[in-house]
Amino acid sequence: MKDISVVNLKALGRDQMENYAIVCSGFSIKHLYNTAKTLCSEVKKLECKEIINLPTVAGRKDDSWFMVCVKEVQVHMILYEYRDELDLEFRWLNKPP
C-alpha cells in the first residue's frame, strides 16, 4: 500500500462511530482485496476483547474500493487510478457547498 494518509474525523466534528480514517492506495484490485482480507485476519488473530465487532471487508471482490472498520478506525483501500477522483480527504476536510 502507498500514499497513506490519516484523517482525524473526531477533530473535524464528524458525527460518526469511527474517530479516524486511514486512506491508502493499491496497484490492483487483487492487491486491495487481499490486503483488506489480511487486515481482517490479523485483527481477528489478536483476540482483543475491546474489539467487539470483528472486522469484515466492505466491498465486492472486483470493486476498486474496499473499507474495513476496526473499532474506531475506518481503513479505506482505493485503487491508485481512482484515488484522486474520489478525493476522500478533501471531502472530509471541507464542508459541502
Q: Determine the mean pLDDT.
A: 87
- Low-confidence blocks of residues: none
By DSSP (H or I, 4+ residues per run), the number of helices equals: 3
In terms of DSSP E residues, the strand content is 25-35%
Query: How much helicity do the residues have?
Result: 25-40%
Distance between the termini: 32 Å
The H/E string reads EEHEEEHH
Overall form:
flat
Question: Describe the biggest sheet?
Answer: 5 strands, mixed
What is the oligomer described by this structure?
single chain
Quickly give the structural class: alpha+beta
The total beta strand count reads 5
Rg = 14 Å
Structure write-up:
This protein has 97 residues and is α+β, with helices and mostly antiparallel strands. The chain is 32% helix and 30% strand. The protein has three helices and five strands, in the order ββαβββαα. It has helices at 29-46, 80-86, 88-93, and strands at residues 2-8, 20-26, 57-58, 65-70, 73-79. It has a five-stranded mixed β-sheet with strand order 1-2-5-4-3. The longest helix has 18 residues, at 29-46. The protein is flat.
